[in-house]
Amino acid sequence: MDHIELNIRDDVLPTMTKGSQSADTRLTATENRTRLTASTSRTSGAEPASHGCAPSHDAPPASNTVVELKNIHKTYLLGVEGVPALRGVSLTVAKGEWVAVYGTSGGGKTSLLNIIGTIDKPTKGELSICGTAIDANTTDDTLAALRLHKLGFVFQAFNLLSSMTARENVELPMTLQGLHSAAQRRDLATRALNRVGLGHRLDHFPAQLSGGEQQRVTIARALANQPEILLADEPTGDLDSANTDRVMDLLYRLNAEQKMTVIMVTHDPALKHFCSRVVYMRDGRVARQETVDPAARAPRARRTRRQG
Ligand SMILES: Nc1ncnc2c1ncn2[C@@H]1O[C@H](COP(=O)(O)OP(=O)(O)OP(=O)(O)O)[C@@H](O)[C@H]1O
Ligand SMILES: [Mg+2]
């Protein structure tokens, strides 16, 4: 396996957002640019703490809980019909946890991630992300600040701009915010792409990349700002086993060493042992949860998988 660079310097890493794309559709370049622009605009009065998952606003007391959902419902309106995607999900995630979300297709996994990522609003229920309570009155500025400073999002659809190279795609959120000099942005994007093993594909356009490589570009884009919570919707769905290992290795270290909280939707049962907890969803509900034995967690899980 190629070397994975993990020396992430706090002082040079950017703050950026992952945009507010729908995870369900592959967006056109224009749509994608519009959404990225909308969600990366800097906001006033909502600056985050520089470390920990401290709340962005008038803070409730410090807590180890970074995600709290109480009785969350989500019903999509399709014509005159309501499609119930989430039917009363309650879930608490502590800082530094790595939660894997498994479940049947259509079970509500992406809907759940979109609500945690504040790119969709619940129909009913209570939600708090990094100490910020979110309800119908929460302003767009507050949500944008959360996405900008706290959340990283790897979408089920890639959402890369086809007219930009891999490096430009990773740079884009920083560019839209006017963060850093052009040389710094280039350096940061290059580092992020190196971390996912794409240092040799910096100047390739999405159409010149395999599906798995495109997926790794989106992972680099999500990690470039060192999010406190990484929300990943099947991040290895298009990767072969070597690249799945590479990405899992990187996430494992970020989780173990930097306490980055990870909430990851996956269908791959082999990934369970990278995680600390598994949540199974069915028909819009949490069907059951399972704690992973710390002694069985990666890197032992990886070795076992390779041998098996
Ligand atoms: N925008 C939408 N409008 C209407 N219905 C939707 C919308 N998005 C999702 N749904 C429906 O909500 C339910 C849950 O969808 P969701 O995408 O959350 O499932 P999922 O668990 O992520 O599935 P998969 O494993 O196939 O990705 C499904 O029945 C789906 O058809
Ligand atoms: Mg999904």
TrEMBL record:
Keywords: ATP-binding, Nucleotide-binding, Transport
Keyword Transport listed: yes
Sequence ranges of Basic residues compositional bias: 299-308
Domain ABC transporter, first and last residues per copy: 67-308
Organism (species): Allomyces macrogynus (strain ATCC 38327)
The keyword ATP-binding is assigned to this record: yes
Region (Disordered): 15-60, 289-308
Database matches in InterPro entries: AAA+_ATPase (IPR003593), ABC_transporter-like_ATP-bd (IPR003439), ABC_transporter-like_CS (IPR017871), ABC_transpr_LolD-like (IPR015854), MacB-like_ATP-bd (IPR017911), P-loop_NTPase (IPR027417)
Pfam families from the UniProt entry: ABC_tran (PF00005)
Gene Ontology MF terms: ATP binding; ATP hydrolysis activity; transmembrane transporter activity
CDD domains with a match to the protein in the record: ABC_MJ0796_LolCDE_FtsE (cd03255)
SMART domains for the chain: AAA (SM00382)
Low complexity bias (residue ranges): 35-44
Biased composition (Polar residues): 17-31
Coiled coil, from the record: none
GO CC, one annotated term: membrane protein complex
Entry protein name: ABC transporter domain-containing protein
